[in-house]
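Expect chain and fold; thus:
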Amino acid sequence: LQISQGYVDAIFNKYGQDARGRMPILNFVEALLYGGNRQIMLEHDYVQRGAYQAGKPATHIGKILYPQCKKGVWPPSDWNPQLAERSAQLPDSRLMLEFVYGYDGFQGTSPNIFYLSTGEVVYYAAGVAIVYNKATHKQRFFLGHDDDILCCALHPDKTTVVTGQVGKDPCVIVWDSITCKTITKIHQGYGNRGVQAVTFSSSGSKLACVCTDNSHTLYIWDWQRKQCLMERKTQPGAPPTTYGVVWSPFEPDRVLTYGQNYIKFFLLQRPPPKKEHMTTWSAKQDAGVFSISRTHTIFSACFLPSGIVLTGNADGAIGSWRNCRLSRLTPAHNPGPMRRRKDGTESYGGIRCLTLRQDRTTLLSGGSDGYVITWDVSKGDLGAPLQRIPLVKPEEMGDLKVPSIRGLDCQPSSEVFVAGTSSCDLWEVDCKSGATGILVHGHESNLYGLTVNPAFPHIFATAGESQMVVVWSSATRKPVRIVHVAQKGDKARSCAFSSDGQHLAIGLLSGGIKVVEFYPSVAQVYWGKLNTDSICVLRYSPCGRYLASGSHDQHIDIYDVKAGYKRIARCVGHSSTITGIDWAVDSSKIMSNDQAYEILYFDPLTGKQIKENQRDTEWATWSCELGFPVMGIWPPYSDGSDINSVDRSPSGRYLLTADDQGMVSLLNYPSVVQHAPALCYPGHSSHVTGVRWARDESYAISVGGRDRCIFQWRLAPDVKPPNAVYDRIPGSQIDSQGVAYRA
């Protein structure tokens, strides 16, 4: 064995003498032959610090330490340095956003769903504006935003759309719904935090928007010239205090804003004809007087041709306003369930939607009780109710929650309307026939669990923190099964399909595990609770014999499927919550990660920890964020918590990551070069919690935790990417298809 002089010096300094300067022969021999010798060698010049560097030889085959991982990693014994060269290149394929499951039914406070002149529906979810075609059940996407969209409005031409977002320098973007291309982008300025509500004037030439600064400032814009015409404070308070802004379609100088315990009326005063060159408008403003009622929160508002304003409140009543005074309250809807507002207080959902039909004689109101009521307004004020339509008939509700209505619009010259609900579903209802149906399905709670079916490539399942786990078909883009968690009050957290695709295991927040037969029918196979905290990871072995579950209790349990899911081992050794589990191809070992940035290996039959490195073990999947083949996934300045999910493609050519910046990133596998180049796809809100490849590698699925959305991506050959690349940071430049190239 040939060793360096530095290594010899290190050995003698540590083991070559005792406190008296004499050589302890037995200790010295043992140090040369056993573990101490090996440890000093690794601590000295045989340890590489950091991942491989692009453009430099990747020939090191010893231990590698990199900042995001506590323990060292090793390349395989037969490591091919040419794989590092591929890791330093962008992938030769790209992801194309194909479908978004969900709708913003929980964050927006103003109207957020509209019919276009084409009969299509425009709305938004997370950071993506969506144009949905019912006839084809397909979507087009506007991907010009780099943060969460909070509001949406439709131009009088029924084609041009405006959307507003949050951000350090929030903006509104006016875009074409046919081409999904930007027309103009108007920044609101630093300190405004976000745009909570937006609307066009009756002529479409002006734009009103309300920001989420402390004063909830109202801005009037000439959007084609990007000129701010007026700026007025609406209501102070913790955002959002102002919920919406409405511009009268009948009187071009009347605007109102509404929100928590207030309504305010503005009479715009334009420059005289001889001074049209002036760019500053003024306004007379009047606070609404709650003359016949206590001051209350207003959730929706609508102008009538007579000049009367109708508003919806939290108790389910519709108010009539004349000359800025509340003149009448008409009971309309049940108040619905109590909901927590962003300021922490609770209130009823009340009436979130009021919309006037094109005939201007009938009005639709949508409430948190799940009903849409048609009203007669032909006499200039709220008249008698004409029709009361539930989205879900009471006899069909069962244990389901009432779908509180959060968005509503009428199809022109038709009895059909579209409604968005708090369950993040999109409904369409025909008033004449009473027929109802869901156009786009979503989840009612934050999403964390995601799994794909190994036997049926088009099938995947998602679990939100609710009592439902939904099994989807990527082909039909609709649910094929909805599995209810039978234990009352318990909620799902994770899920996994068995290797043969027959069983679906569900991990619960309470620490329980429920297993159901997925195909050909849904039937419970197992229920047990051996943990006190939530089950955050589930993974079946490739042989199908075992199920591994990782919990917040910091241990991993192994269950024998053939023995009726009897627990056969418990793997102990982690110091934090389990974040990932993968099985060896022969099911003889498991690899696991935790939130303390550790990689541990276990024997699943005994539960004993395997101390030796597993550099030559072949793994059936790679979903752990730590390890040699994924040490290049971390962006600059990452602390190890930025990436939430990883998945290697079935072919072993690509790698997907999901991160805290709302990005889904596509890289070459293995990713072993520091800050490896990636194609980064925005659209989700700030934390993307899961990403998985389909077993046939034709598509991928990502889930955004708090945006409650599921994105379905199609893998396609890449056109040659532009030469310019951009760092993966918020606000990075993106191309027309929403791709940010990271160097």
User: Anything to note?
Assistant: The chain is about 5% helix and 45% strand. The first helix runs from residue 5 to 15.
